[in-house]
Amino acid sequence: MTSLTAVSGSNAAAKHEPNRYGVLSAAFVVMFFVASIALFSVFLNPLSEQHGWTPAEVSLSYSIFQTVMAVTGIFSGRISDKFGPRTVMLVGGFVFGLGWFLTGIADSLPMLYICHGLIAAVGNGLVYNPALTTAQRWFPDIRGKASGILLAAAAIGPATLAPVANALSSAFGVSNALKILGVTFWVTITLGSLFVHPAPADYRPKGWEPPVADKPTGIAAATGDDGSFDFKAMLASPRFYVLLAVYAMAASSGTMLVGAVSSISQEHVGAVGTMTAAAFGAMAVSISTISNFLGRLTFGALYDKFGAFKCLSLMLMVTALAMIAMSFAYNAVFFVICVIVLGFAFGALLVIYPPLTGETFGTKHLGVNYGIMFLGYALGAWIGPRLATGLHSEAYGYRIAFYAAAGVTVFGLVIVLFLAARVKKAGTMMPAKK
Asked: Which of 40, 63, 224, 391 is the most buried (most CB within 10 A)?
């Protein structure tokens, strides 16, 4: 009788277990809309003109947003691990939409920074991390592909919605456009979040077994502990700081391109035929976004085949070479090629790091751990744009900035190669706990 009851219970659990591809699809919808921070560039000049603010003053809200989002991600991961991702994402969707709506009525810079840089950023951090890490737990067999699909959504979302945002701004004015988007984000993220379910503990897809190197051994195997690090154990590990530093180095080059590609193109190439310099700059932004999207999808598949360190090494090497090539890219065709290569390589970074964090420190506490690791990207987002503006000069243009970014990237590559050798020698991705 006991055996029959156990079997019956097991069958019932399996029957009611959500379809993991349905969860991935719901998370895709959520990521598509929550990644809309990139739309803020559409409102940069309209907000400046409407309120008499300088572009630099308005763009500061973007930097504040990135920092607050990263810090919020740490706490959202911990809350999500405790209460489940759906609740956190529903709250986050409301806060995110509210932040955009209130930005539409902001009439002073402090109010802009509070509504967009703080409120919308908190909502973004509450949604982004749980959506990404939940998918990672449902797909331990294809971590890279799952990460690539979701982060591809984060790339095509802004590319798709940017024309919509511009059309809304032209038709209804910038303030009303922000309000409309705020309501839209709240509704769509709420609907997607309703279908996101947490994976069962130690979930394994049918017919899949983790690689031998990833299986717990010794005391861990005897006690059932999978060896996962909580955030305190992760912060006590030197490997965390190594990976954090590499994340910041790699992000510096990518964010420098994203933040300044239009300005760089106008200075390096200028007008092309009947196309004005500004139009060519806008085209360069679109090309960078599309190549970034393709890079995310491609490296998601490459990750599962070749592993984190090979993919990360390839991404860093290509980025360094393309940065050097960009310093000589004064021809339109050559410039576009460099933009494509850099965008493609940068697309790999956000795909690689979530599964890399899970493989290195375990998935049990991935929500919190990746939230902390993401601070590396936030740091790079502060460094990269300032490399472009700080090292730009009348005599050399952006050339010194390109060389500096390439140097930082090469240093990151050396660290990754050294770390890969250590992992290979140890025979496991996980470091020893302190």
From this structure: 40
